[in-house]
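To illustrate this point, what follows is a protein record of this kind.

___
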Amino acid sequence: MQAFLTIAMLVISNIFMTCAWYGHLKMKQQFSWFEHLPLLGVILFSWFLAFFEYCFQVPANRIGFRDNGGPFSLIQLKVIQEVITLVVFVVFSTIAFKGESFKWNHALAFLFLVAAVYLVFKK
């Protein structure tokens, strides 16, 4: 159960992170009021979203970390988080930025990350 909760919270965290890091690029295209925000306003908007990222990311790592009674080592947590980040980003960019294409080299890089997860969990 801790493993599922950790991964679910990391997914939610990464959705907020991706929106904070890249969502403003799409919002600039869709909302005229957002386009006219100064850079400081965009930064504050992203920080607002990043607050919710940390509200999920920090507890996920605390719950999931082996030294706190969780099922994952520190390295396992980091590799899981990186793969989740990539998956969330690919879904986000495919939905939000239709002009961006997912190419064979991106797929190969993703497979290497999946292989990294396998290797990190191999005893």
Notes: DSSP finds five helices and no strands in the chain.
